[in-house]
Design a protein that fits this description.
By secondary structure, this protein is mainly α. Helix content is 68%, strand content 1%. The radius of gyration is 24 Å and the shape is globular.
Amino acid sequence: MIYDIYKIKIDNFKVFILLSFFWISINTGSKYFILDYNDNFNISNLTNLIRSLLPYLAIVYFIINRDKYFKNFFLNFDLVFLFFLIYGLSQFSGLIYSLKNFHEHYWIVCLFAIIFFFKNKVDEKDSSSVKLIFFINKFYILILFSFFIFYTFKENILSENLLYHSQAFHYEFSGNPFPRASGLSRMCLILIIFFNSIYLSQKLSKRYNFYILIMSSFLVFVLFTLQSRGAIIFFIFLFMLINILSKFKNFKKRILYFLFIIIIPILLTLSYPYFKISLIEKKEEVGQLSESQRKQNTDIKIFRDEIITEIKKNKNFKLSDKIAAISNNRVNAWKYLLDVFFYGKLSDTTEKLLSRNFSSESNPVINKKNFLTGYGPQADRHLMHNRSNPYLSPIIMGPFGAHASNVFIYSLICSGILGLISIIIINLLIVYKILIIFKNRKKISLQSDFILNSSMLITLFLQFRGLIENSYGVFGVDLILLISSYTVIVNAYKKISE
């Protein structure tokens, strides 16, 4: 008995350490493998080197324990993990045809480490480690979100604009860029899903319910001020879904929920700019506003006035221009990458659409076409950052750099037709299992299982997010959350199947 308790504690500790490896290594890469001991060597680079090596360390641990992690991978068959493996292998094959980016094998190693780790958790009869993973993930999200949102508010408080244009998004932390508004919105919405699932699924005291509502209200307010359209759209869908499916026991609880989740956040969002303007005016009166802060606010006003003037001058925008503007130029990036993938260069249609005239010599060309397995991880970035590339402009790159901004296009470019098919099948399989669970919700007490509810909603959100971001197509927060949420879903699916 004592031995069993001891073994459980050791196993849980291993789960925490291995999962922490993945979280700590986020936002690094193989670029830190070569240290410059002359000019650029510092503690930050050394720290990033150690962080970037953690997935390799996890792989070494799996090799040492290969009977547990490798041999059993194909025994208990799971198509989602199998197609993730195919997705990774196709990218590895794509590296042979890559644009001098073999060092990007790092992302494949990270993917393999994650799928072998989580597949082992799925195979375990005891689901306690899966629940532990769920809470570890929420712990890291809460820590990261709290840290970054503090600096975002701090740098935004003396600016008239909302958080979307915060100066903090141009900062670096330990040599890596701050997450964008869309990245913070992603973490914010996941926390909203988590707290809402607890509120609606668990029988808690009035005091704890009040705390959860206060926290949720603040998070929704932050979500609105971040102005990430994708996250806000999914939040609206989430709110409607909850109200349709949830069985509030009394009218008072429904009113309270609507008040804290919708009314209060909207009022806070509307009053936030006026509060900041009032604070700025007071600071100006006593001379506490710095020159850089004053210049920032002036620049914002000028920029806003220029946009309004431009809109008044050009009332008849083309439909393509409107779509490109709404999508933050994602549509233009998709056209560009699809042209390069299928034709090896820009098509005449794309050039005409963007009203750009390029010589054939200036067009990016892929000499070795590899439709089957693509061009390896991060190939979208390599193609779009090619210095001979005429699309190095705001039209394509936007303010935060160039990438596919779509998980399906990313998988096509990086892992070819084989990878794209794998990603599509993965999504279809996950949605199918969610539908089966929902159909048999009474069998597994879905109403009271907030971990399962959270996992399903998080998975659906990440799938939706994949339409406008690379998301779970590459190693990062989204991939960890998607696969860990799937482990919860597949455990529930197994119970139904049994």
